[in-house]
């Protein structure tokens, strides 16, 4: 640590106050000041009667309602869906609508879709090619191209008619369809129309999708996961009107709430899992299965509704007979389902004790390939998720929550989720699973079931703001996951986002989904880590949890925007967080707070009989100059040592000897003080405290609180929290004065000792600096590959040189 003496006047530091700010409506033209704490008013939508300044629905908030009545048939052999649906659209907006927009998500697989035509090639350059034009094409890419060439994909739609049977004009635009109404739909009115539709189901493993079928060669059966399977109304909102942006793959779905009545006809030996409550169990389940379902309501552990033995029996032979499963769902924004003869089915009742829905049936559907992994953990993870998420939001409002195994790694819909992990078949016929697969299953079930809360109930716009569902949900699945087993690396700690935060290949979190460069860290990990910091470091759990629950309950069954989330969290917590939203969500700044210097200061007493002795000690502690050291070693004497008879006062006394002149000046200083000044000064001299000045630099640009761990000479430690507002007048450099009692001497200081702020360089957080621990790896040089590469390049250079010489000779 650097030592110095501080004078009384130095304790009073002038504060430079500036009114300069940054933003869209103001311009900083003087100096280099940047206001990191400028309010977000210019960036957020203006509050209105639909969305208030408090972040809650306004007095005139509205949203549309869409009800569906669908009859669908699964042709297993052709792997094709055919269906007819009737749609009731209720116009709750204050606007008259002349047309409606629907989403045709299956059209993304058409060869002329925007998604297909703008897909970029990601091949690999062949090594040794002097002009890297040739590339490697993976077998997976070839498989996808072949499947799409061999199958007609996308929706086929026919017989679009109004409730009177009159034709409605239809215009298809990529993954969207406009239906022109025969009569304008006025506010408060509703319209009914119907259509037939069909499409060929994609093979998910071949194409890569959010739904599709999976074929099992060993038993000849399929698992069908059906989502985005019917033409769905696009959302019509107060902030954007029609949300009719094409489906490109990353941006998910923006939908309206409504009621569903769906009849699903499948082969008679199939088991169906779907959004909603099964309305006809007596028609599709045996008496034994219905009894097991009733038993499961109060079971301690999951009960098999369809046992493994029954599922294996179903696998053996197909059937030409069919059954129709009838599901009803109220107040949901989507509908998905799964069907297979391979499914076993277990269930367990979750008694949450809430008034809205006291009993929820947690259920899992999976083939034998799921094995003990699914038997032990899937349904239990469903229940655990509801227990944790309900604490942060509201009671789970639906009758069922389901986890279904199939080809989709992880995808969510109201009351149903698709999850991918499985066991591995061993040579002896048994099945086992790795630790990674176990962690994957628990993690993906928690994450996807969590999505039933966000955004299936708190209905954010996934197409625009992926982080509003993925980020918030990743934060909460991190809470639920760590409450399951904190030793599992859940990936939501601030330290988990460090490498991404300092990378160049990134965009702000507030970027539309399809334009995000790295979706995982941008939409999932970064906002999750940010909220983790907001809860654990900035607000504390009490304030954060109250505000977050307020947000969830305000926007339950409604459609929030980022502004609504930001405003609610501030309004409910009582803390201005605009600086936090701006830094973490609107910029690509990162956290890198460096502790540059620590000065140890003591108060100058101005009493020469005290201060001069201290100055003498300081001078004596200085290293001996090399010149003087070597002269002494050589035995050389000073002139004054060889002539002791020539001396005066100054030879007897050093420059730190006190005279009456200094004493008189000190007494004059004391007499010139006001009584309160002298009292204050003398008390400070008596206490003789330590004054430490810490110098910080903000190297990353993102302002954050400064978390300090102070270690003292006596071995004790102290933690100090400095709010982020310390950077409000200078976002690059600040100093902080810390005062300790006499004898309480600092020996070291650490910034963010537990890595709670995502600081990208922890080595500049220590003072004094520490030796950086690392490892070095011994390796054997691979000569052969390097030699081949060099030989190829040498041959190329030689041939090029010969060609140049030949061309030059011909020109002569």
Q: Largest sheet, order of strands side by side?
A: 7-10-3-2-16-20-18
Level of helix content?
A: 25-40%
Poorly predicted spans: 2-23, 785-790
- Coarse morphology: elongated
Oligomeric state of the chains present here: single chain
Number of strands: 35
- Distance between the ends: 75 Å
Beta-strand percent range = 25-35%
Q: Could you give a short account of the major beta sheet?
A: 7 strands, mixed
Rg from alpha-carbon coordinates: 36 Å
What class, by secondary structure content? alpha+beta
| Alpha plus pi helix count | 21
Mean pLDDT: 90
Précis, in short:
Keywords: Signal. With 812 residues, the protein is α+β, with helices and mostly antiparallel strands. It contains 21 helices and 35 strands.
Written overview of the protein:
- With 812 residues, the chain is α+β, with helices and mostly antiparallel strands.
- Helices cover 30% and strands 25% of the residues.
- It has a seven-stranded mixed β-sheet. Strands 19-22-23-24-26-25 form a six-stranded mixed β-sheet, with helices on both faces. A four-stranded mixed β-sheet has the order 1-29-30-33, with no helix packed on it.
- α8 (435-450) crosses α9 and α12 crosses α13.
Layout: helices, strands, pairs:
Layout (H helix, E strand, L loop, with lengths): L1 E5 L58 E11 L4 E11 L6 E7 L10 H4 L6 E2 L9 E2 L2 H12 L5 E7 L6 E5 L2 E10 L4 E11 L3 H4 L4 E5 L4 E6 L5 E2 L2 E2 L3 E2 L15 E10 L3 E4 L2 E2 L2 H4 L2 H10 L6 E4 L1 H9 L5 E11 L4 E4 L3 E8 L7 E8 L4 H22 L7 E6 L4 E4 L2 E4 L4 E2 L5 E2 L2 H16 L15 H20 L12 H4 L17 H21 L1 H14 L7 H12 L4 H8 L7 E11 L4 H14 L4 H8 L5 H4 L6 H4 L7 H12 L3 H13 L2 E9 L7 E7 L4 E6 L10 E8 L5 E6 L14 E2 L15 H29 L1
Parallel strand pairs: 1-29, 2-16, 23-24, 24-26
Antiparallel strand pairs: 2-3, 3-10, 4-9, 4-13, 5-6, 7-10, 8-9, 11-12, 12-21, 14-15, 16-20, 17-21, 18-20, 19-22, 22-23, 25-26, 27-28, 29-30, 30-33, 31-32, 31-34, 34-35
């Amino acid at each position: 640590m650097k030592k110095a003496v501080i004078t009384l006047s130095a304790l009073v530091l002038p504060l430079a106050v500036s009114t300069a700010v940054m933003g869209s409506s103001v311009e900083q033209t003087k100096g280099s000041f940047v206001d990191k704490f400028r309010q977000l008013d210019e960036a957020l939508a203006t509050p209105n009667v639909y969305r208030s300044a408090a972040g809650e629905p306004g007095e005139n908030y509205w949203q549309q309602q869409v009800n569906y009545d669908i009859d669908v048939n699964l042709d297993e052999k052709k792997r094709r869906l055919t269906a007819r649906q009737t749609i009731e659209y209720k116009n709750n907006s204050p606007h008259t609508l002349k047309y409606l927009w629907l989403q045709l998500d299956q059209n993304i697989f058409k060869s002329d879709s925007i998604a297909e035509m703008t897909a970029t090639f990601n091949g690999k350059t062949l090594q040794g090619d002097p002009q890297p034009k040739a590339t490697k094409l993976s077998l997976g890419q070839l498989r996808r191209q072949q499947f799409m060439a061999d199958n007609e994909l996308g929706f086929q739609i026919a017989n679009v008619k109004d409730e009177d049977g009159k034709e409605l004009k239809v215009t298809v635009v990529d993954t969207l369809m406009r239906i022109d109404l025969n009569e304008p739909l006025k506010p408060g009115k509703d319209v009914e129309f119907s259509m037939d539709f069909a499409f060929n189901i994609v093979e998910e493993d071949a194409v890569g999708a959010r739904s599709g079928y999976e074929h099992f060669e060993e038993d000849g059966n399929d698992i069908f996961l059906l989502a985005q399977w019917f033409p769905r109304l696009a959302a019509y909102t107060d902030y954007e009107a029609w949300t009719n942006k094409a489906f490109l793959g990353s941006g998910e779905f923006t939908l309206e709430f409504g009621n569903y009545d769906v009849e699903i006809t499948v082969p008679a030996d199939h088991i169906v899992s779907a959004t909603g409550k099964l309305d006809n169990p007596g028609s599709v389940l045996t008496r034994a299965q219905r009894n097991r379902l009733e038993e499961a309501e109060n079971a301690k552990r999951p009960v098999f509704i369809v046992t493994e033995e029954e599922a294996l029996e179903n696998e053996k032979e197909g059937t030409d007979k069919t059954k129709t499963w009838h599901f009803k769902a109220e107040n949901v924004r989507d509908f998905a389902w799964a069907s297979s003869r391979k499914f076993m089915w277990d269930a367990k009742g979750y008694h949450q004790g809430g008034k809205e829905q006291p009993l929820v049936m947690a259920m899992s559907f999976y083939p034998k390939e799921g094995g003990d992994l699914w038997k032990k953990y899937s349904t239990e993870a469903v229940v655990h998720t509801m227990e944790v998420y309900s604490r942060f939001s509201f009671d789970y409002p639906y009758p069922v929550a389901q986890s279904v195994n199939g080809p989709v790694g992880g995808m969510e819909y109201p009351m149903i989720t698709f999850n991918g992990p499985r066991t591995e078949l061993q040579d002896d016929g048994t099945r086992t699973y790795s630790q990674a697969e176990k962690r994957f299953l628990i993690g993906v079930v928690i994450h996807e079931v969590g999505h039933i809360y966000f955004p299936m109930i708190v209905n954010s716009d996934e197409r625009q703001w992926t982080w509003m569902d993925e980020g918030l949900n990743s934060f909460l699945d991190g809470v639920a996951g760590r409450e399951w087993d904190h030793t599992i690396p859940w990936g939501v700690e601030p330290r988990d986002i460090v490498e991404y935060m300092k990378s160049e290949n990134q965009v702000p979190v507030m970027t539309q989904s399809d334009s995000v460069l790295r979706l995982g860290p941008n939409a999932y990990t970064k906002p999750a880590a940010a909220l983790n910091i907001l809860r654990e470091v900035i607000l504390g759990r009490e304030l954060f949890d109250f505000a977050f629950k307020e947000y969830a309950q305000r926007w339950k069954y409604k459609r929030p925007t980022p502004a609504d989330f930001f405003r609610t969290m501030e309004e409910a917590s009582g803390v201005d967080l605009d600086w936090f939203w701006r830094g973490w969500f609107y910029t690509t700044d990162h956290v890198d707070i460096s502790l540059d210097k620590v000065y140890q200061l003591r108060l100058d007493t101005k009493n020469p009989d005290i201060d001069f002795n201290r100055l003498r000690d300081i001078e004596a502690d200085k290293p001996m100059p090399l010149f003087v050291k070597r002269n002494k070693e050589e035995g050389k004497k000073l002139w004054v040592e060889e002539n002791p008879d020539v001396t005066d006062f100054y030879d007897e006394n050093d420059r730190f000897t006190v005279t009456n002149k200094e004493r008189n000046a000190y007494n004059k200083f004391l007499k010139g003080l006001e009584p309160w000044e002298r009292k204050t000064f003398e008390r400070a001299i008596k206490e003789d405290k330590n004054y430490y000045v810490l110098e910080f630099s903000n190297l990353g640009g993102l302002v954050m609180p400064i978390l300090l761990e102070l270690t003292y000479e006596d071995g004790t430690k102290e933690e100090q929290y400095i709010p982020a507002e310390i950077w409000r007048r200078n976002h690059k450099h600040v100093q902080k004065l810390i005062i300790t009692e006499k004898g309480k001497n600092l020996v070291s200081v650490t910034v963010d000792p537990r890595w709670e702020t995502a600081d990208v360089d922890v080595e500049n957080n220590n003072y004094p600096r520490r030796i950086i621990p690392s490892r070095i790896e011994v390796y054997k040089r691979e000569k052969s590959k390097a030699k081949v590469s060099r030989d190829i390049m040498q041959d190329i250079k030689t041939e090029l040189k010969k060609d140049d010489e030949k061309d030059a000779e011909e020109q002569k």
